[in-house]
Amino acid sequence: MITVAGLTAKITQRIETYNNDDFPLSKRDVVSYDLLDSRNHILATDIVSPFAVPRQNLSAMDGYALAQGSTLDAESTIAIVGESQAGSPYRGDIIAGQGVRIFTGAVVPDSCDTVVMQENTNFAAIKDRIDKSKPYDMTLSKTAKANDNIRKQGEEIEAKDVVLQKGKRLNPTDISLLANLGFDKVDVYQPLIVGVLATGDELVAIGNELTSLAQIYNSNTPTLKTLLSSLPVTVRDYGIIADDLDKTTAAVTQAMQECDVLISTAGVSVGDYDFLTTVIEQLGQINHYKVAMKPGKPFVFGELTQNLAKPVLYFGLPGNPLSTVVGSLQFVIPALWQMAGAAPQERPMQLSLTATLKNDIKKSAGRMDFQRGIMSQNAAGEFEVESFSKQQSHRIKQLSHANCFIVLAQDSGNVAAGEQVLVQPFPWLYS
User: Fold this and answer.
1) CATH number of 353-429
2) What backbone phi and psi angles, to 5 degrees, belong to 100?
3) Is 3.40.50.300 the CATH classification of the domain at 4-28+190-346?
4) What is the pLDDT of residues 355-396, one digit of tens each?
5) Segments of the chain assigned to CATH 2.40.340.10
6) At the fourth CATH level, which superfamily is domain 29-53+159-189?
7) Which residue, 53, 68, 55, 44, is CA-closest to 156?
8) Contact status, residue 134 vs residue 80, Cβ threshold 8 Å
9) CB neighbours of 192 closer than 8 A, spacing ≥ 6?
10) pTM of the entire predicted model
11) What is the 8-class DSSP label of residue 109?
């Protein structure tokens, strides 16, 4: 049985090989997305700026732009001969001793090398009698410095600079940058096709009636679809597959022809009617089976290869809803971000922090434990966490009411109130 860290490393290594050899990023299809639809998609090409930013010298202040060679001492008088507004630059000639009224973001005339804040002039005293149709005198109340208060052309971005690199996961600030540069479309990697299927004779699709006390609703498929909704993937739902070897084989065979990744829930344990592991071994291979974690021990990582040009990676999750969430957050979602081509620094990070435990926790050594808890901050701003008293994996309401996992090391035993523990807040709390 492999450790959580060990399995994470093995999956990462396999996907690195997959991205380099089995399905190289350089050979992936590239699609053009509207900028507003591109969030969380992965750039397939470097983005080169079509122009410098700023495009020309701009004023950083409301005030006056002074011509080169002007006297900048306090009490100096400058003849103001015009005005430069944002979108309406001054187009006349200016000589030493002259300047123009200017506003934040307006173009600084080529002949000017200094902008003086209006607060450092006698503007307040003369503003009510200024006739903008005629030149007027302005006096400096404070000595100015040449080149002050000017945003220089290209000081942030030079024309043809690479502003975003291939592998960037586009976020709202990236979209802001691209919009500032005039991009309305971006080239991204074609989303991976991820197949999802559930197995079990007892399962009923939501929206249908339960006709027997032995039946339960298929909650795992909606859970998975929601967990995957922010990823650059296209989800294909293969429905509920009966506990039958031939039907399981047929469903997996179809999915592996149509998908890049297959995720299943249930059917991976050792029961008489758990057929998925058998099918995966017949159509490919199991790389790792069982991980030292609770819940989620019967986790399967493998691949489907029979008669395929490239392997379809396979993640087999236990049927328990809690195990589906834990396995997805710890293994599946990080793997999919990597497969999608996101650069290492662009993959969402699992936020972990320490908190003071508010109640005793029982635990046996042997598996890493993901207990459900409620994290809070006390009056001093310190993090605290309370574990639910009952931690059985079938408790679905408890998972909904929790806001974090309390992560207890594989070799740890009982933990007493007041001790520091590692906490993973649920990602939907901060995303």
Assistant:
1) 2.40.340.10
2) -135, 145
3) no
4) 999 999 999 999 999 999 999 999 999 999 999 877 666 667
5) 353-429
6) Molybdopterin biosynthesis moea protein, domain 2 (3.90.105.10)
7) 53
8) no
9) 232, 233, 234, 260, 261, 336, 339, 340
10) 0.90
11) P
